Amino acid sequence: MELFPLLLLVLAFVALVVLPARARKRQQTQTQSALAIGVPVTMAGGVYGTVAGLDDPATIQVQIAPGVVVTYARQAVLQVRPVAGEVPGPVVSGETVVEPAPDETTPRDDRPGDGSTGKTL
Q1: CATH class of domain segment(s) 34-82
Q2: Which helix or strand (DSSP H or E) is residue 40 part of?
Q3: Is residue 72 within 8 Å of residue 43, measured between CB atoms?
Q4: How is 46-108 classified by DSSP, letter by letter?
Q5: Which of 38, 59, 60 is nearest to 50 (CA)?
Q6: Where are the domains of the chain?
Q7: Are 53 and 62 spatial neighbours (Cβ–Cβ below 8 Å)?
């Protein structure tokens, strides 16, 4: 009975520290395995770019603008983003994906004003 509080502390430590760290490590491993040339990524610090090279196992080359390639540590990849035009999320077979129609009407401003500038008198 004297070891019960110690056992509770050990279980709390495992639940609050070890399990979330293991989940973060698993997520990072999945992200690293999804890296390929041409894949859009988000880097630490909020930099968006596209993978341009994977030559070194410890680094990654990311193109952040046309002709601008930056080298990062692989661990700096926070997220692999979906390719432009790709539907985000899982699509169930038989499900129809409908693109939203562009809004063809422009909103009108019926307030009194002096012409196209929209200044109110």
Answers
A1: mainly beta
A2: strand 40-43
A3: yes
A4: S-EEEEEE--SSSEEEEEEETTEEEEEEGGGEEEEPPPTTSPPS---TTPPP-PPPP--SPPP
A5: 38
A6: 1-32, 34-82
A7: no
Separation between Cα atoms, residue 81 and residue 49, nearest integer Å: 10
| Single pTM value for the model | 0.54
Cβ(35)–Cβ(76) below 8 Å: no
Per this entry, what is the length of the chain? Answer: 121
Structure tokens at 35: 């890296």
Sequential pLDDT tens for the chain (121 residues): 788 889 999 999 888 998 889 998 898 888 888 889 999 999 998 999 999 999 888 899 999 999 999 999 998 998 888 877 665 555 556 666 666 666 666 566 666 665 566 555 5
